[in-house]
UniProtKB/TrEMBL annotation:
SUPFAM superfamilies, alphabetized: P-loop containing nucleoside triphosphate hydrolases
Biased composition (Low complexity): 487-502
Keywords: ATP-binding, Nucleotide-binding
GO MF assignments: ATP binding
Ranges where the Helicase HerA central domain occurs: 12-71
Pfam family, one: DUF87
Keyword Nucleotide-binding in annotation: yes
InterPro entries linked to this entry: ATPase_Atu1862_pred, HerA-like, HerA_central, P-loop_NTPase
Protein name: ATP-binding protein
Disordered: annotated span: 483-502
Keyword Mitochondrion belongs to the record: no
Entry-linked PANTHER family: HELICASE MJ1565-RELATED
Lineage summary: Bacteria, Pseudomonadati, Pseudomonadota, Alphaproteobacteria, Hyphomicrobiales
Amino acid sequence: MRVDIDMGTASPGKPAMIDLEELLATRLLVQGNSGSGKSHLLRRLLEQSAPWVQQCVIDPEGDFVTLADRFGHVVVDAQRTEAELTRIAGRIRQHRVSAVLNLEGLDVDQQMRAAAAFLGGMFDAEREHWYPVLVVVDEAQLFAPAAAGEVSDEARRISLAAMTNLMCRGRKRGLAGVIATQRLAKLAKNVAAEASNFLMGRTFLDIDMARAADLLGMERRQAEMFRDLARGCFVALGPAMSRRPLPVTIGSVETSARSVSPKLMPLPEKPEDVADLVFTPGPEEARMPVRRPAPQPIPTADLMAQLARPQPAPMPPPVEPMFPEIDEAEREAGIDTVLKEILEDPDAGFRTDAVLYQDFLVRCRIRRVAGEPLQLAAFRRRLAVARAGVDRKTAGGEAWPQALQLSESLPDDVQGVFLMVAQAAVTGAPCPSDATLARAYGTHSARRARRLLTYFEERDLIVVRTDFHNNRVVAFPDLGCETAPGDPNAPDEAAPSADAAE
């Protein structure tokens, strides 16, 4: 079924139409400087296509939440855990509900993590829920930056991976990416290159004009036209719009953003007691902290004189230790007990390492575990070993230390899954099912668990085979052992049953 979306007016006076079905298959990239009308264009596209297709908007500034009043979009506040956002995104795809992910109020690092969790939940939906969805990402350069910035490397990595999945692999899952950016130079090339439709607005930098002209198949001397475009005017190209560059003026919209461009207005009349109004705090005004002056730099001559002074003689060591010696065996036993308590919680596998680490620190203080607390990296390693559930006899054998050494070459988040399968091989237990491996990885998706086994096999750590009863066997060539046959579709034995939940 062909559905044409009216975006406004083309240059000859004809309506500018977008073939919605073609757009879902070929994706769209919108580029323009701040104030060029990108958000207005996205709002027009969303309003015109709302009756025909499910929509999800990644909204970093909270501008699109007004769609809820007119078109019934569900507003999802991003101030939740990443696991919650992933589950909410899965239910949105299941029930075919249009939604707006409101990232307002979060810093850039948190916005990237929340958007990645939400897009990951939509991407990992079950196959029977792969309905067409128009996924609109405003300010896409925040979530798919071309270079590292002030955010953490981990946040940039997971956000860029989610955006790459949306634009590169999302079509087969029904996800049609519509991304808008202020500058093409700031957007990752592997994300921008997957779009086949373009709407280029006003821009002034030479590098952005040249890149926009290249994408539209225009000559470099024609790139100057992008400086002359008015607000709300774009040049369209793509199979869903036009086979040749076509100037388009975006039409009006029914809803409006909460934030608008500043307008000039006359200053208020100056009262007589203006000085008292400025320098006298109001009764309801909170007391602000006093800014202390920055310390004056020490002259270089004084620093050199301080360094030239003789150091005082070191004090003799005390005869007796100031603090009681720590019993390392008791401390290790306390840490093992705390880790066991954490893993006994059925939901522990679906919480982030940061949340589990805070719970670990609190439990250690409650149990009076002596010594310095484990750092986050050491905690992740101990948690991965604890999840494998190795008894003392297995840990004292020759194969298990070698399995621990092999796991050190893997990322932190998959070591627990690798050690769980290695423990089954060392002890000759049946191969864990997909549901059990998914719980150890912190997900409900069995496909992710199978992809992890494929990842281990690609690194030549394991060999996976299936016997004549369709049971799975995992062999470890470096350890010289393999698991017993196990049903990959068996339920997770550690998951709580419905009777127990009641």
